[in-house]
Design a protein that fits this description.
single chain; eight-stranded mixed β-sheet; 7 helices; about 20% strand
């Protein structure tokens, strides 16, 4: 099982933390508000711990569960404390009308994280195409992107520990298109599906 540190104390941090604990992983919560971090760790149950914001995370995998505009600043703030870690970006940089990407360029939050991450840190995009309550209650496919094979293997093993199927879409530049897929899920929720009780998945034809 994996040692996980989660930067953030919101709904996705809570959901991923709970599934991680259920999957036998160790979980550390890190938040700017230490009392919120402690409260979330307590809610997750025995074995969950808290770490001080900006210090070296205990986990080998560091999941940044923040709103998209806080992800890059947080990684920059942690700096060398993230050296050697696998940084997992789960964010969706939606524009104000939720029908496009806020950065408006062929980049991604994950790629921007890679620019400010310390030497030896590796970045993987994951979980951004899954609505929170579907992640909490369902068994969705989880698409990932990254340039480092070993880092992706670590993230895949973690996802499998949650009882979910990881699917590799390629290098980190594909994170841009995963963020686009996040926009597609919102469009489907608002139009073709009409609710948020679904996730994008892959159906394979029988051999």
């Amino acid at each position: 099982m994996s040692k996980i540190s989660i930067i953030g104390t919101g709904n996705m941090a809570r959901t991923i933390g709970a599934r991680a604990m259920a999957g036998g992983n160790t979980v550390e919560i890190m938040g700017r508000d230490q009392s919120k971090a402690a409260g979330l760790a307590k809610a997750l149950g025995d074995g969950a711990t808290t770490g001080e914001w900006g210090t070296t995370p205990a986990g080998d995998l560091v999941i940044v569960a923040l709103l998209y505009n806080g992800v890059v600043p947080a990684v920059a703030h942690y700096g060398d404390a993230l050296a050697g870690k696998v940084i997992v970006d789960i964010s969706n940089p939606f524009n104000s009308t939720f029908d496009g990407l806020a950065h408006g360029e062929e980049t991604s939050i994950a790629q921007e994280v890679a620019k400010v991450a310390p030497a030896g840190a590796r970045v993987v995009k994951a979980f951004n195409t899954v609505f929170r309550h579907v992640l909490e209650k369902g068994r969705p496919d989880v698409f990932i992107a990254g340039d480092d094979a070993q880092a992706k293997a670590s993230v895949e093993a973690f996802i499998e520990s949650l009882g979910l199927r990881p699917l590799d879409v390629g290098g980190l530049k594909m994170a841009h298109w995963l963020e686009g897929a996040g926009v597609v899920t919102v469009g489907l929720a608002n139009h073709g599906v009409g609710n948020v009780d679904f996730a994008l998945s892959i159906t394979e034809l029988p051999v």
